[in-house]
Design a protein that fits this description.
Elements (H helix, E strand, L loop, with lengths): L1 E5 L6 E8 L3 E9 L6 E9 L7 E3 L11 E9 L8 E10 L2 E11 L4 E12 L1
Parallel strand pairs: 1-9
Antiparallel strand pairs: 2-5, 2-7, 3-4, 3-6, 6-9, 7-8
C-alpha cells in the first residue's frame, strides 16, 4: 500500500498497470470512494496477454479523487518450467503525463496459482 499525492489544479489522473515476467495475469481494477465501500469506477477486468493497454483515466474533476483508493486485484499463474523466475506487478499513477507515484508487488514465480493486491490511496496536495 502506498499514498500518492496529486495536484487538484492540474490535469486528469491516469493509472497504468505493468506486468513483467513469464506468467498469465487476470486482473480487476476498482476505484473505491473515500471512506466507503462504494465504487467510483469499475470493476474493470483485464489481462496481460492482449493488445489493449492496461491504463485507465480516473474521473474528473480531479479534486473528487481525494481520499479514493485504487485497488488492483490480480490472479496469475506461470508454467511449472518458469518456477523460480522473477515477476513484478506495478500500478503507476500519472498526472499530465508524469508519474507521480506507484505501488509494486514483486517476487518469485512458484509455477502454481498466485495472487496479488495493490492499493494506492489518493490524496490531494
Amino acid at each position: 500500500m502506498t499514498t500518492v499525492k496529486f495536484d487538484p489544479t492540474k490535469g486528469p489522473l491516469k493509472v497504468c498497470f505493468d506486468f513483467t515476467g513469464p506468467f498469465f495475469a487476470d486482473y480487476t481494477y476498482k476505484l473505491r470512494e473515500a471512506n466507503s465501500n462504494a465504487l467510483a469506477d469499475g470493476p474493470k477486468p483485464g489481462d496481460n496477454k492482449n493488445t489493449q493497454d492496461d491504463c485507465y483515466l480516473l474521473p474528473t474533476p480531479v479534486e473528487q479523487n481525494d481520499g479514493r483508493k485504487i485497488v488492483l486485484s490480480t490472479d496469475f499463474v506461470s508454467p511449472p518450467a518458469q518456477k523460480g523466475m522473477a515477476y513484478s506487478i506495478v500500478a503507476t499513477v500519472s498526472q499530465n503525463g508524469t508519474s507521480i507515484g506507484s505501488d509494486t508487488d514483486s517476487g518469485t514465480l512458484t509455477g502454481d496459482f498466485q495472487d496479488s493486491l495493490l492499493v494506492i490511496f489518493l490524496q490531494k496536495i
